[in-house]
Amino acid sequence: MDDENTEQLPVQKQKHRRYRTGCFTCRQSPVTNRCGNCSRLGLTCRVARTRLETVEQGGLIREQIRDGVNSTSDPSAPTPTLQSPSDRAGLSLTEDLDLTRLVDDEDLSDHRPGLTRGNSPKDSQTVDEIEILSPKTDAAHESPARFSFFPYLLEQGQSSHIDYYRSNVISATSIILDEDTGLHQLIPKAFSAKHLMSALLAYSMAHRAQIPGDVALAESYRQQATTQYGKAIMALRSALSHKDDDFESLITSTLLLAATETTMGGVSDWYNHCIGANQLVRAFTTNINVEHVAYHRFLIRYLMYHDVLGAVTMRQAPILDSSFYKREIAGLASDSTHPMVGANAKILSLMAKVCQLHEEAMKERAKSEEDDLDLALIYGNGADIEQRLMSLKLPPSLPLLLCFVTEAYRSSALLYLYQVLDEIEGNSMQSGFLEEKCEHHLCSLKQHIARVPLSSAPASALLFPLFMAGTCVKRPEDKEFVRSKLLDLYQVVRFANILSALEALEVFWESPRSALGWQQLLRDRGWNLALT
């Protein structure tokens, strides 16, 4: 009887436990060193990743606990904590996803309605009044997935581009090589959305086309990138026409398309994708939680990075809702360093205020005579931004090389502020104190750039600081410093927009100098230069 009862007892199932010791795609099994999701997706399971490189001048630097680095020539000087204004609530979600209606709002009044578009000889096509242009006539729709579990199945040869993205593109773009960044989440997300997979493939192929070697192979990758670029645009159109509410994938795809344009050296269409991403953010504002969802914070800060630097080069105010910038200035997030772009979100937000100050002053000048400008008010606002930038304190746990990168962005923001004030000032004042400030922070900027080895991961964030240094240098040796750094940076990270930035600087160095003459030069050439 006891034996019979024993046989009838149900077998107790062993509880499954998840371990965060595998790749970010899933959780590694404690039994085998290859995880389940990686096996199904055909990906390489990465059990461990290398730590952030911290090397300086060819020697190893230990990651140090720092109290913050000042923007002066002494990088060890402590700085007081930044005081910031309070945040305001975000926009509400529209009942109907009418993105074109959002374009008519004040901050998008200068832009045509369009989610994303490319260089196409075809006429524009609209779906739900959203303009999306396809760059290729032969970019056909993907065939339907054979299994509902994965809406997108890789075609022959595409898995190598996913592997290339994981092993090369991430290392070229990420300044923090860990597994908790949004970059690693893109691969599993891409298998659930056709437009995201095509955008990811286009991004990887575009970067692969920049690798030196076989010219024919590079051209093949470039053509494949263009084809996937077109497929991503058409898949985005389809998703929007079906009122797809997966806003994470939609926003990610538009930002990847912008990154693809910059990778190939584009100087216009990348910003159209940023406009589309901004429209999606405004439409899904109530769904976005940047305080508690790390991936939302990753997306918004990545868009913020493109928005601010685009506003600098295009001489306009940022288009992203100001509540996101106010939130960053208020310091509601514990970590302000973006794992991909390296820029401090607070510094970017203060740069957004500089762009806003510039646009408002130019509008006021257009309405009235120069003598009617309230320079005292303008300089008061500029002094407030300057004080906030100089008093901003870096996180104590920030690695040393990231401190140097952040300081380079701080000095760049101050240089741009002084350029804006110099242009607004015109001939009203002849004190020359702005020129003295520029010289001081230019010296500081060059020092911080020189301390970041181009072979290290954080160096990928140095394009904007190098460009701002190039707009200020006058001596031939300083120009050669910027030129050589940009060329070396391109050899390391392989993004063609670096060469576009250098080309713009070379033309500017041969032109008559003025405070913001480089902005006018870009406008005359019809360039929306991407410094991301």
UniProtKB/TrEMBL annotation:
<dbReference type="Pfam" id="PF11951">
    <property type="entry name" value="Fungal_trans_2"/>
</dbReference>
<protein>
    <recommendedName>
        <fullName>Zn(2)-C6 fungal-type domain-containing protein</fullName>
    </recommendedName>
</protein>
<keyword id="KW-0539">Nucleus</keyword>
<dbReference type="GO" id="GO:0005634">
    <property type="term" value="C:nucleus"/>
</dbReference>
<feature type="compositionally biased region" description="Polar residues">
    <location>
        <begin position="69"/>
        <end position="86"/>
    </location>
</feature>
<feature type="region of interest" description="Disordered">
    <location>
        <begin position="102"/>
        <end position="126"/>
    </location>
</feature>
<dbReference type="InterPro" id="IPR021858">
    <property type="entry name" value="Fun_TF"/>
</dbReference>
<feature type="compositionally biased region" description="Basic and acidic residues">
    <location>
        <begin position="102"/>
        <end position="113"/>
    </location>
</feature>
<feature type="region of interest" description="Disordered">
    <location>
        <begin position="63"/>
        <end position="90"/>
    </location>
</feature>
